[in-house]
Design brief:
This protein is 54% helix and 11% strand. The protein is of the alpha/beta class. Strands 3-4-2-1-5-8-13-12-9-10-11 form an 11-stranded mixed beta sheet, sandwiched between helices. InterPro entries: Cation/H_exchanger_TM (IPR006153), CHX17_2nd (IPR057291), CHX17_C (IPR057290), CPA2_transporter (IPR050794), Na+/solute_symporter_sf (IPR038770).
């Protein structure tokens, strides 16, 4: 059989029931449609989940995991006609299984379309536009040059000779969907590398796919009139979607009140639109996915509509239906049909497109003063391939532009290159490393006459009064000014691209998360009341909580803040305890990565309450070490406030065996500074308390916990003291430090170790 011939497999199939009566009645369930499809979906999704669980720590993306499962379940691996897999994935079930696979792919790309932000093309800066353009032009130019050289100088059969231009174009394509899914899988979406790659891929992807679509139509047997008719119907379908269906969806969004869920009838209507658009795509001769992706891009992304659609079906589509599509795609791969000449040609184009994409990304990145390692990582990200590339070459095979062996070689090449590059990207680019060499900024080393910069994070608007009162007690004045960067942290839903929105006075912004307006108004009012002593900059960070800490740390580094305030994940409210589960992981990542001191604020309600003429009682539990010195340094700033009464309880650790005289000297210096500052001021006090073990420490804290509105403690201690080590045995919240977690007013709200009711705010500081 020549390589240009089409391979057909004829299957004779009798008429059987869709359902099996069961093995006890003598039926083989795999001879019936329903149990066969269920077995296929179960097997592909289970193996994909297991493979991803194994490969994710190695830096591999979900695409590689599903592609490997496709190879494992495909005929190229098992091949035995009598094996179990040959019965599950039998030739007679191919029509049903392929329909399910494509339906899953339709829903998946519809969701990707919803998550796309077309406004990124408008907002892309000069850097992203230049990098995106060169990432498109370099590989396609290099591949076409290589194609000319190969067709002129290499001996090959006529079919392969005629298909070389298509291989060159298909290998050089860059896709936005692939890049954004890759940086999401690698948790780089909030890094500068991830943001630049996403913006650049919007430009290069638009150019690449325009060229690929053009190549799908040229040199085909159809007449020019037929091709023109197909293009006209494509434009007509786009106009129907954007000028008829999109206004309807915008109307649905407007009819949904803020904070309310979208009506089920609206969701059902959009799914009907999806099926109709996919059907029209097939009727007009386009790919079935064309209408689905276009409709997805027309859906207003984000809440309430886009988020609702994504939340409804994303897990089911990504985890159950999509793996079956990869099994179907790789089922067309036949390793034994591949000839060495085909492998050589495809591999040459794979390498040349890789070189073109890396150079096209690196050279302009280096021109824009991006570090070489970052520029190389960017090139690797832009050279990776994914599900959109599989769809492209699969459609090329459907149109007879590629045969089985070329298709098989390109899929294997895709697996090898992307599977190799993704772990290298993760190894080269670790966002946390950029802060390791930074000089950690602290409150202690910020002069009182310098501007104190604080970054305050907010998960929910209920935390706003407490944080504002804390900033007020920090005592900003004309001689000790303060700059506050308040960031509302919002979970990203219904979109792939994160946003950091700067709310500048007098300027309206497109993105408004729920409760953001209340937070903005509260901080604006606080800024006005401070009469110029405080400058407030307001942001909303809409990002996945798995990577939002990178946004916070980058902002802290760029703004040179001395302190990051993060609310504790358990928040006490009049109606009960609100537990923001995802916030705990975010807080712990910020503690690990932040380029400055970090304070965890536990809001128990008393700090935000009005005191009128009464003083705010603030306590500092000081043992030793740099974190306790940082807590006391913050207390010294508060002590200058006219409504703050500061009490320092100096814990003398009698169980401490090792002595660091340099540390002891530093501790003594800041204690002396406080004594001088509080001399003659009756509202401030200092006392020493000797403790032998953790029992005495707990007893001491229990005796004073009802005396304060706010308690400041350090988080960690370098010395190996039995006094603190014994507390780790009951550790529940290690992010709060030794004293912060045992005892604390969080773990035991009604026991003898805690403050009565909700009478204490607890503050845990970490200084690096």
């Amino acid at each position: 059989m020549n390589s240009s011939e089409i391979e057909l497999e004829l299957v004779c199939q009798g008429i059987t029931n869709e359902r099996s009566r069961g093995i006890f009645y003598g039926d083989n369930p795999l001879d019936h449609t329903t149990p066969t499809v269920l077995a296929q979906l179960s097997l592909s999704s289970l193996l994909s989940a297991l493979t991803q669980y194994i490969l994710t720590p190695l830096g591999e993306s979900a695409f590689i995991s599903m592609l490997l499962v496709g190879f494992f379940l495909g005929p190229s691996i098992w091949g035995d006609k009598h094996s179990f897999l040959s019965k599950v994935y039998s030739a007679k079930s191919i029509n049903v299984s392929s329909t399910f696979a494509f339906f899953g792919c339709i829903l998946y790309l519809f969701l990707l379309g919803i998550k796309m932000d077309l406004g990124m093309v408008k907002r892309a800066g000069r850097k992203a536009v230049v990098i995106g353009f060169f990432t498109f032009i370099f590989p396609i130019t290099l591949n076409l040059i290589v194609a000319e050289i190969l067709t002129t100088n290499m001996e090959m059969d006529q079919y392969l000779h005629d298909r070389v231009p298509y291989i060159a174009v298909f290998q050089s394509v860059t896709t936005f969907h692939v890049i954004v899914c890759l940086v999401t899988d690698l948790k780089l979406i909030n890094s500068e590398l991830g943001q630049l790659a996403i913006s650049s891929s919007m430009i290069s992807g638009t150019c690449s796919w325009s060229l690929a679509i053009f190549f799908l139509f040229i040199d085909r047997d159809e007449t020019h009139d037929l091709i023109a008719l197909i293009l006209i119907t494509a434009i007509l379908l786009v106009m129907i979607i954007f000028f008829l269906l999109r206004p309807i969806m915008i109307w649905m969004t407007r009819k949904t009140s803020e904070g309310k869920q979208i009506k089920e009838t609206y969701v059902t209507s959009i799914f009907i639109m999806l099926l109709g658009c996919a059907f029209l795509s097939e009727v007009f001769g386009h790919h079935v996915l064309f209408g689905a992706v276009t409709l997805g891009m027309a859906v207003p992304h984000g809440p309430p509509l886009g988020s609702a659609l994504v939340n409804k079906i994303e897990s089911f589509v990504s985890s159950i239906l999509l793996p079956s599509y990869f099994v179907f795609s790789v089922a067309g791969v036949n390793i034994f049909s591949i000839h060495l000449k085909t492998v050589t040609v495809v591999s040459i184009f794979g390498v040349s497109s890789f070189i073109g994409k890396v150079l096209g990304s690196m050279l302009p990145a280096l021109y824009f003063k991006i570090p070489p390692s970052e520029a190389f990582s960017l090139g690797l990200v832009m050279s990776c391939q994914g599900v959109s590339d599989v769809l492209l070459i699969q459609h090329g095979r459907f149109l007879s532009l590629l045969n089985t062996q070329i298709y098989s070689t390109m899929v294997i090449n895709m697996l090898f290159l992307s599977g190799t590059f993704t772990p290298i990207i993760k190894l080269l680019h670790d966002p946390s490393k950029r802060y390791e060499s930074c000089n950690k900024r602290t409150i202690q080393h910020t002069s009182l006459h310098m501007e104190l910069r604080i970054l305050a994070c907010i998960y929910h608007q209920d935390s706003t009064p407490c944080i504002i009162r804390l900033l007020e007690l920090t005592n900003p004045t004309a001689k000790t000014p303060m700059c506050c960067y308040a960031v509302h942290l919002v979970q990203l839903t219904g979109s792939l691209v994160p946003h950091l929105v700067h709310h500048e006075p007098g300027k309206s912004v497109k993105f408004h998360a729920k409760d953001s307006s209340h937070i903005i108004n509260a901080f604006r009012l606080y800024e006005q009341e401070c009469n110029g002593n405080v400058v407030v900059n307001l942001f909303t960070s809409i990002s996945p909580f798995s990577t939002i800490h990178e946004e916070v740390c980058r902002l802290a580094a760029e703004k040179s803040t001395s302190l990051v305030i993060i609310p504790f994940h358990k928040q006490w409210r009049p109606h009960g305890i609100k537990n923001i589960v995802e916030a705990r992981s975010v807080n712990r990542h910020i503690l690990d990565m932040a380029p400055c001191s970090v304070g965890i604020l536990v809001d128990r309600g008393t700090l935000s309450a009005s005191k009128n003429n009464n003083l705010y009682e603030i306590g500092v539990l000081f043992a030793h070490g740099r974190d306790d010195r940082e807590a006391l340094a913050y207390g010294l700033r508060m002590a200058k406030h006219s409504k703050a009464a500061l009490t320092v309880i100096h814990l003398i650790d009698l169980a401490r065996t090792s002595q660091d005289y340099h540390e002891m000297e530093l501790d003594s210096d800041i204690i002396t500074e406080y004594k001088i500052e509080s001399a003659g001021k009756r509202r401030h006090s200092y006392r020493q308390e000797s403790v032998n073990d953790c029992v005495e420490l707990i007893r001491l804290i229990t005796s004073v916990e009802n005396s304060f509105d706010l308690i400041l403690v350090g988080r960690s201690y370098r010395s190996r003291s039995p006094l603190f080590e014994a507390l780790t045995e009951w550790s529940e919240f290690p992010e709060l430090g030794f004293i912060g977690r045992h005892p604390n007013p969080i773990r035991f709200p009604v026991s003898g170790f805690c403050a009565c009711g909700a009478a204490t705010n607890f503050w845990s500081l970490r200084q690096d």
